[in-house]
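Researcher: For the record, we're logging two predictions in this thread. I'll number them. Prediction 1 follows.
Model: Prediction 1, sequence and structure:
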Amino acid sequence: AIRMTGPALALLLAGLCLFSLPGWDPQIINSGLYRYLRPDLKDIRNASSLEKIIKSRTRLLYSKDGVEANVAVIERLADKKLSLRINGKTDASSEPGDMVTQVFCGHVPFLFKPDARQVMVLGLASGVTLHAVLSHDVKQVDCLEISPEVVAASKYFNSVSHYPLQDARTRLIVNDGRFHLSHTPDKYDVIVSEPSNPWIGGMGLLFTREFFSQARKRLNSGGVMLAWIGIYDLDVDSFRMIARTFIDVFPDATLWEVLLGSDYVFVGGTESLRLDYSELKKLYNNPQISSELAFVKIGQPEQFISRLIMGPKELREFAASGSLHSDDRRQLELQVPRNTYLQTREQNILPALKALREVSSNPREYLSFGNQSDEKDLPAIESYWSERLKVMDAFMLTEKQQEY
């Protein structure tokens, strides 16, 4: 007969108790309360009422813990909009604002490289950007995604991403993007880098001079790189740091405003980029591309061009006081998290917008016209650009008034 001593029996009972305890509720864990809980939700009186609010407004479609992150897909019951949550933070969604960014990032590089055949997309997320790239006449798209759980979650977005992983031209590579760039023999005509925010652990490595240099080395002659950045968590010095680091590798880069006060993209190339308005009009002649851009309210070429906020000269001026961000001096991972819980509009967004406004350029200065008849659109281009400046000024004025 087996005899158990008192301590051994106690350990056995403790283990049984652990296995019998209820697990964490994945819907609550993935709700991102550390990011999205608002103080004006007066219905919240205790943990129980908070749980009821979350479960009455959202539905958990997918949740899995992975080596890299906890990944979930949340559906908002009111309008069926989906969000991809990484450790509770939304990294992609079918919300209108996110759709604009996801679609725009997949199209803007082709304005500069319309004949691109080999493309790399860093970050699968919802798959919308990957689909946008595939709408062009590309031969192969290498999609780098570090998390197998994100690959599984992306399938819930097929209604808006149109099944990009089923496209024969897609080569899904589940691996670290930097590792791939440093080891692959392949070269690309376009690289789209759409990682998470730099305050997330490890993401700072995708905003260093070494990373951008690795990407440049894997570009073919005349190749183009796009790098996304969200400024809502950035102080203006961190924004300048990323800009300075990018133009250190791509000196003639441009900056595009996707969503005012939120999402911006740097676009640079191995050579000086030529911004041909007539090439953009050719893109709009593709029914699939034009319908996608119209869906996200960029239905006219003039609207597209109006999002160019800085040419190379202005971007260099904006970035001049920034420091370089390198692998051995990764300041972003220390600096940016301090901004996460600031009053982000007043302390992050407004200073950044003010700095951008001071040196923003008129896109007309950088336009060329392969077809001279397209010059007739110049008044419309000027009009859209003028309206965007007015919206920026109104936004800053409104946000400043809310401080008082």
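Researcher: Logged. Prediction 2.
Model: Prediction 2, sequence and structure:
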Amino acid sequence: MVRVDIDNLNIRYGPGVTYARTGKYTGKGLFSIDIEQNGWGKLSSGDGWICLAYTKKEGT
């Protein structure tokens, strides 16, 4: 799980800024991540990838 602490976080089709945006998360909260790659995390929900630089890991 990761915690998002910013108000606007882009969700992308792949792990990087060269991938198109699939949407934007406009709140703060917790997300489950299935895969981490090059500083990006794939959302367990299947919605896309988020930049992990804007998150903090929760739990172990």
